[in-house]
Specification:
Number of strands: 14
Shape: globular
Order of helices and strands: EEHEEEHHEEEEEEEHEE
CATH superfamily of the largest domain: Pleckstrin-homology domain (PH domain)/Phosphotyrosine-binding domain (PTB)
Radius of gyration: 19 Å
Strand order of the largest sheet: 2-1-5-3-4
GO molecular function: cadherin binding; RNA binding
Largest sheet: 5 strands, mixed
Distance between the termini: 58 Å
Organism: Stentor coeruleus
Helix content: 10-25%
Protein name: Ubiquitin-like domain-containing protein
Pfam families: PH_UBFD1_C, ubiquitin
Number of domains: 2
Length: about 230
């Protein structure tokens, strides 16, 4: 019996237990996942701490265990067809040139950089559980950053190459976002830390917003203040 490697793949709210021959590659995994999820292999984005970009990577070289979770981001063939029709309709309705001064100059400068190379794909039409770590962001100063959700200690960490900003859930009064229309599916995520204190993160994927907000600010859901019902 040939040796196998076992691990888990999460796609949306579904988790798959995977077992493949130990010499399988990332490409082999994508082909297998296409059969299981109907997400076309060439449109799959796989993440393990960061994006798995090299299709020739041998899975055994990734130190995978049975408890390891790989995140799959991608739409099924049916969803792609529906999304394409919706997008066409939206674009027809939005035949408006967005002025360059739609954002303040300091924000526009960051937006003009475009999504970082390791950013998750943005998705306008999905609502997906936020992963423990969201890479591929820019912080308020335009530096590369990642957002890590520390559920076990009720904190979010904003990490860049030089520092880590730790913010307790309790210090976050609310979470909002502004869509970046030039890059559909991406947003400016705003953590409201006080009446005049806000922290922005750029190119946060829209599909993660609702679950992040529900996790950190459960009393502000869909714009409603539920604190009176505590």
């Amino acid at each position: 019996m040939s040796e196998t490697i076992s691990f888990k793949v999460t796609h949306g709210k579904i988790q798959y237990s995977i077992s493949l021959p130990i010499q399988s590659t990332v490409k082999d995994l994508k082909n297998y996942l296409e059969q299981q999820t109907r997400v076309p292999a060439n449109l799959q984005k796989l993440f393990l701490k960061g994006p798995l970009k090299n299709n020739d990577t041998i899975l055994s070289s990734l130190n995978l265990r049975e408890t390891t979770k790989i995140l799959l981001v991608g739409s099924t063939a049916d969803e792609i067809s529906i999304t394409s029709n919706i997008r066409t309709s939206i674009e027809e309705e939005r035949k408006i040139d967005i002025p360059r001064d739609a954002f303040p100059p300091d924000q526009q400068r960051i937006i003009d950089k475009g999504p970082p190379a390791d950013a998750f794909p943005g998705d306008l039409f999905s609502n997906i559980n936020v992963p423990d770590t969201v890479p591929g962001l820019y912080n308020h100063a335009g530096a590369n950053a990642r957002l890590t959700v520390k559920k076990e200690i009720d904190e979010v960490w904003i990490v860049n190459n030089t520092s880590t900003k730790r913010i307790p859930f309790a210090a976050i009064g609310n979470i909002n976002y502004i869509p970046i229309l030039k890059y559909p599916g991406y947003t400016i995520l705003t953590l409201v830390l006080g009446p005049s204190n806000k922290y922005n993160l750029y190119f946060f994927p829209q599909q993660f917003f609702n679950t992040l907000k529900t996790l950190i600010c459960p009393l502000f859901i869909d714009g409603l203040d539920l604190s009176q019902f505590k």
